[in-house]
Amino acid sequence: MSINLFAILINLLLLTSFCWSLNPITPEARIDCYPDPGASAGNCVARGCVWDNNYDESHPTVPLCYYPEGTGYQIISQTESTVTLRKSPSSIDNPFGSDFTELEGTFTNIGNIVKVSIKPVGVKRYTPPVPFSQEIVDSSDRLHYQFNNNDKGIFNFVIKRTSNQRTLFDTSIGGLLFSDQYIQLSAYLPSKRLFGIGEHIHHTLQHDLTKYTTWPMLARDQPPNSKDPNQNNLYGVHPFYMVVEPDGKAHGVLFFNSNPQEISTGPAPHVIYRTIGGQIDMYVFPGPSPQEVIQQYVSFIGKPFLPAYWSLGYQLCRYGFNNLQEVKDVVSNMTSSGIPFDTIIIDIDYMDRYKDFTIGDKFSGLTSFADDLHNKDMRLTLIWDPAIEVDYDTFKRGLLSGAKFIEWSDFSLVPKGIQDLYPLAENTKVMLGVVWPDKHTAFPDFLDITNNTRDWWVDEFKSFHEKVKFDGIWIDMNEPSSFGTNEDHPWYFDNPDHPNITSLKCMVKGIDTKLETPPYATQSVYQWGDNSYLSTKTLCMSAVTMNGTQTFYNTKNLYGWSETVATKHALHESTGKRGTVISRSTFPSSGKYGGHWLGDNTARWEDLQTSLIGVQEFNMFGIPYVGSDVCGFVGSTNEELCLRWQQAGSFHSFFRNHNNNGEQAQWPYLWPSVEAATIKANTFRYRHLPYLFTLHFEASRSGTPVIKPVFFDYVDDSNTFDLSHQFLWGSAFIVAPVTGLGVKSQVVYLPDSQDGWYSVYDYNYGVNMSSGFRTYPALLTYNSPTFIAGGHIVPRQVPAATTGASRKNPTELLIALSQSMKNASGSVVWDDGETIMMDVNKHDYTELVFNFNTSTTRSVLMIRQKKFSISSSPMPLKAIEIFGLPYYPDISSVKANGISVSIDKSKSIYSPFTEVFTLVGTDNILDYTKLSFPVELTWNHVTNDYMSYKQYLTESNRIF
């Protein structure tokens, strides 16, 4: 025994001496050889890696155990676009399984996109069955690739920008590994300005690459923690990032993989990509502007759906309605308060014991309630969870129709003690979990290749819509969530509203557990501590999907996406209208089918702050119809927090106040100050709904974001990269919501621009604002500080209590003149708000383009039609508001195509001090349906002399 121990120590010392004799790698450019728990000098050296004894307390994230140089593969043959690789004899072994001996790499140009695929030679590997659109958006720049063996004989490749030869992705840092359940690819980046990777809570929009951080990606039923720094994996998976290079050009990278995975960032700067299944399929998008990167990425994966117009209105919800009368009371109180409001959303409370497609006794009047809402020009959205209780008609109809459910891989694994409780489930391999219903549930396999599951799902919605005329669908718990998996005493055992039924147990111990407890489980497991598994809070990784052809280990991250695809079909076929689907779990291309809310946040200021970042990120992920639970979901909100959140949320496309069962109500009318602030914020939103809808139409047509980081349009301004809590609403507006307690003034940064900025909130409305950091009043009675960029024309409409009523009102234009050029341009898109848009080229809509120019003698507004439909024409133009007009207008000279226009002189006002001009028609300035395009609206200018203009006003009996 002592001899064997002595031999082990000698070998360990020799190995340690060898590893310490290897060339040290700078702390900034390491690849962690011990990303799993248990790093120590002995364990590190046993893996053949380098251990650094010099722990630096000032840089605690630096890996002490790291891969040595020479780790990886080498090229043994190549063509112009392919390589065959063999594991280098000098490389250490993969710590998490035997590496495949040979790999093949393929480099492909897809338009201006570069795709890199790496997989084992002669081995079929899983790839996600997600049908990307693969639409190519042209770019002014190109990418090219190079590959070789470096001076140590190790394969590396680079992706470069053709225009300036900038290297965007450089794997010479080493560390390529590829075993069955551990794949690793690392690369140097050209800049530390990195954005994206989700879904997580990020406390700043720009990642901090001064330290090492790992962002795991495994869809998890996990409420976000915005208070403490963390890397918790949340509901969705988005392995996409964008880097802004030193010269302001930008590129994006997608790792297309649906297995548990993670991205580590380091200060070199560099990234380490790890996945525990599938293969490497990497796409690089050239930009070169940030917005072009997103357009290219989103067009490739699938451009966003066009939401129904009503879904851009204000929505209210809570979990914990006791009966339908409480819902009716909220609607009545909201209507009485005068708060513009469109949609009521009802959580699982309406169901009979939380079973999908049922109505509980306390909500028996739901049918007539939906009809009453529609009579008031309002809408109803209901929730559905994917988990189906296995002892009622919906499940029975599913089985009879051939619908598939997630199953055990073999009958021998089925827990008969549970299965035999349910006659419909016994003698099946259907995997049973626990969610909200009283009894065990099955989980539809939406990846069913026969489409029987989708057809059954659609039929259930169609049948339910015959009872209750819902307008929108909210799908929740679709990571999918299963309560208490692998636990003997799940949380619901202490919940009086849920029976103590046995939770799902997976094979986490035993001989064949490689899917449940893989060699490397990722930080999606390790960060949650002992007794955590990939199957925690969900189903077993060894379950089978896609008609038994795939494992849940491979496809879990696709569950929310696949349910959203099926549910969009269900919405359209049941309602016959556009509607909107909102999903909790998402994956690349989810935005093509539905929107997203940021999950079960908490009523804290930190959550308001991170919601602003989350909305910007999901616009980058191609899901612009996104928002947070306004005022907070978990915990009791307070008056000031709720007020500020209402103000901030009024700019988010999905705008919903929602809170948790058992928490105090947070309807905005409960506090006079919040009621007043919500009326004001919602009125601003409803006035600008034509602009917001136009942004969404453009997003669905060309993949542009609706809300975006300020640096997207001002990438040459280095100050914009740190503006996490300011954002652009389209390109016309900068919004800077208040996100802290007791704030009376707000520091706002307006980028330097020759076009200038104007205030469009309570402080100095319409007045030109200086660029740079400035402090602006931000009282509780003010709207969020909001500014419009010069050079933009924004369509507006007289607001009303609902979007439907607003759509019947006259339209307006807000024209903010460029300070340097004294011109502006913009557009509006208009349709009926509810027809399903299957193809933008065949859709019935109107698109008008506006151009405004002014000189010392006259102003001209030119309106051209890109497309015009009488049935989808905007309402007549009633008023025009112009910021930055330096000339005195003669309102008696207003003409449309040479014909005089009657102007309301009492409401048409110009101030030479603010340079704001409001022009209001006696009836309407223009009726788009009665004019020939192009339309030229003109007026003359009286004089540049203020005293002469004052005399003109006096003689005209005008109010000055």
From TrEMBL:
Keywords: Disulfide bond, Glycoprotein, Glycosidase, Hydrolase, Membrane, Signal. PANTHER family: ALPHA-GLUCOSIDASE, P-TYPE DOMAIN-CONTAINING PROTEIN. It comes from the Eukaryota. Residues 1-21 form the signal peptide. GO terms for biological process: carbohydrate metabolic process. Belongs to the glycosyl hydrolase 31 family. GO terms for molecular function: alpha-1,4-glucosidase activity; carbohydrate binding. Its main location: membrane. Residues 17-69 form the P-type domain. This is Maltase. GO terms for cellular component: membrane. PROSITE patterns: GLYCOSYL_HYDROL_F31_1 (PS00129), P_TREFOIL_2 (PS51448). It is found in: Membrane.
